[in-house]
Each structure stands twice: as structure tokens, then as C-alpha cells.
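WARN no homologs supplied; continuing
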Amino acid sequence: MRKMNSMTFLILGMVLTAIGIVFTVIGTFKQGEEAEAFQNQVIESQNKSIELSEKLAKISEEKFNKLTKAELNVIDLIEIENNESPYFKIKTKNTGNNDAFNCELIIDKHNSPLVSISEIQLFKKIPKDEIMIYNIPILKSSIFNKIAHSNDKDEFEIFKDKFYKNEIPVIIFFHFEFEWNNQKYKSSQYSIVKEYNRRPYVSTSENYIDTQK
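OK structure emitted
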């Protein structure tokens, strides 16, 4: 009887030990899952903090650039009536808060057959608050006129005749490009519409538009 009781207690002890081991394993596993979940939450929180810091830094940089960069704007348009090659004087002012470098006026589109698209005029520097004058041909470019194909010249005569009869206006698109703080900037795009014997008018878009597409 005593031997049987000993065996029973031994078996019961082994069973309880096994149960204890199982609960210990389960507890350890759950602790591991909780620890991993907590670690993932910490990593996610850190990533969100980094993203927020990057966004704030970008906003600060954009505000800094907006407040301090150069800015080229047209402040006046003067028509020079020259029988051979009339042109516009584009009075351009640096209205920003720093000097602008490698300043270019680029003709994006001109409906006259004798004005080269992408014609560029360059000033090395336009200081803050300074005014520079760019010239844009109304009917023909003196440089392009010399190298133009005979077909272009024939088209130009037709274009010029229609212009002087007020059948077609001259339409020009252009913009400025310049450098500041080792970055290149594009201005808004400007358009000029000129009808014969009428004052030209200039308008601008808020952003640059690629009219060559």
C-alpha cells in the first residue's frame, strides 16, 4: 500500500512538473510576443518621428528659400518701332532678396517663322533690386534671319503681310531661368500678344508651362 502511494505521488509529481514546464514555455512565448510587439511599436514611433522631422525640415527650407531667394519679374514692356526689325524691350527686375546669377530669358514659342524657338539672352548677374533690359524680336531675329531656309523666309513674308493687315497677331511665350544658392530656378511663364497698331499686352501664368509639347 505504501509502495503504491509512493508511485502515485511520483507520477503526480512528474505530471505537475510537466504541466509547469508547459506553462513556463507558454509564458515565455507570450512574453516574447509582447516584447516583439513593444519593440515594433517603438520602431514605428521612431520612424514617424523621423518622417515628421524631415517634413518640418523641408518646410523650413522651402520657407527659407522663398524668403531669401532671388526672383525675376517683368515690370515693363516697351515696343521699339523699327521698320526692319521691331522689337520689345523687356524691363526685368530682381524683386527677390538676393542676387540672381546666370540669368537667362528663353523664348519658348514665337509664331513668327523667323524667330528661333529657345533663343536665349544671358546676363551673368542681376543684383537684388536691379533692372536689366532684355530684347525680344517682334517679327524676325537678325541672327536667325541670316541662316533661315528659303521656305522659312517665304512663310515669313506671308506671316508679315497678314500681321500688317491685322489678320494675325504676334504671340510670344518666354520665361526666365537663373541660379541662386547653387540651385536653378524657373520663373513663371510670360506671354505677349501684339496686334498691328495696337498696344501689346503681357500676361503671366503662376507656373512655368512647357508650350513646346
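The chain has a mean pLDDT of 79.
OK
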